[in-house]
Write a structure and sequence with these properties.
single chain, globular, four-stranded antiparallel β-sheet, 29% strand
């Protein structure tokens, strides 16, 4: 990985994983504009308050973990999504389209609470309070970007987040290509300028996930402040575009996308976050890492993880030509049984 700790320079701060902020960066920038924005954006319920001016039709409410058992799902407009107020890596996120989905989500959340106990600090993942909000239909998009010292947005990557079904909330596949960057670069830049009018966001790096609805409007799902893509995948820009996002942020550089994409016109890039299916007992199975890695014709980077302790088994970055997209698609829709063996 390129960087492991926070870097601090001229009141510009970026961390690779949000849990690093409290111990490293926060004592050095308390009271700064970036610190104030951090406290707003890391809480998804406060995020909805901020963006209510841009997206007034997105209803939401918050509930404690204890209150979920008492909540009548019939009182909520379906479909909706339930997710932790503070979280990442799709931990504790469930879509609900029926009463049966609701009770399955409650069971899943309780299981995740037990599994994630003491795995991450509360500032990163907290399964004590949840946000329930309208399910936002449309294409999901993820970006890394920053607002420079003048408050102007600079986009460092654009990926589409693909799902196997409407109920899929996993991080199985993020996809990018020259076509995706060209399609979304200008509209997203205009949207970020709208965001910059909501608060003072100078010298502010962030990872943003949002959906584009059928009318072409962007609706934010989450903003992870003071960091780019985290948890082992902050280097996607380096492997996909040859960009060091930290260097671009600290030196206030802007990518020359025409030049960057020239040699990548016929390429697709995929970031895969592979978790073990939730119905399996992780202590009784073995994930075949080498077989999974061998599925891809060109692997750019991979990181194996201890899936008995962490939510993921492996992160992998791969490249294919457009005519080999099926290589990616087969993993998106796989139940992973071909890579999972029962322990003897």
């Amino acid at each position: 990985m390129l960087f492991r700790c926070a870097e601090i320079r001229f009141q510009s701060v970026v961390v690779q994983q949000f849990g690093e902020f409290d111990g490293i960066a926060e004592p050095l920038c308390t009271g700064s504009p970036g610190h104030k924005n951090l406290n707003y954006f890391k809480d998804k319920s406060k995020l909805r308050q901020i963006f209510s001016r841009l997206n007034p039709d997105v209803w939401y409410r918050t509930c404690s973990l204890a209150e979920l058992d008492e909540l009548d799902p019939a009182s909520l407009q379906m479909p909706f999504v339930i997710k932790p107020v503070r979280g990442f890596a799709s931990i504790g996120i469930h879509s609900v389209r029926s009463e049966a989905d609701w009770y399955a989500a409650l069971a899943g959340i309780k299981k995740e609470v037990a599994l994630m106990h003491n795995v991450f600090p509360d500032v990163v993942v907290s399964l004590n309070e949840f946000l329930i909000e309208r399910y936002i239909e449309g294409t999901e998009i993820a970006i890394d970007a920053y607002f420079n010292g003048e408050g102007e947005p600079v986009i460092l990557n654009i990926l589409t987040h693909l799902f196997a079904s409407p109920s899929d909330m996993s991080d199985r596949l993020y996809l990018t290509s020259g076509e995706i960057v060209v399609r979304y670069l200008d509209p997203i830049e205009r949207y970020l300028k709208e965001i910059s009018r909501l608060r003072d966001l100078r010298n502010f790096p962030f990872h943003l996930e949002m959906r584009e609805d059928q009318n072409g409007n962007f609706v934010p799902i989450e903003i992870n402040p003071m960091r780019f893509m985290g948890f082992c995948v902050a280097d996607v820009e380096h492997y996909f575009y040859g960009i060091n996002p930290y260097e671009y942020y600290f030196h206030q550089k802007k990518p020359n996308w025409e030049e960057i994409l020239e040699s990548r016109r016929d390429k697709l890039y995929g970031m895969f976050g592979i978790d073990i299916p939730k119905h399996l007992d992780k202590t009784r199975i073995r994930f075949n890492y080498e077989k999974f890695i061998g599925h891809f014709s060109r692997v750019l980077f991979h990181l194996k993880m201890d899936y008995t302790k962490l939510p993921m088994a492996i992160y992998l970055f791969a490249e294919v030509s457009h005519d080999r997209y099926s290589e990616f698609e087969s993993i998106l829709f796989s139940d992973l049984s071909e890579f999972i063996e029962e322990k003897v």
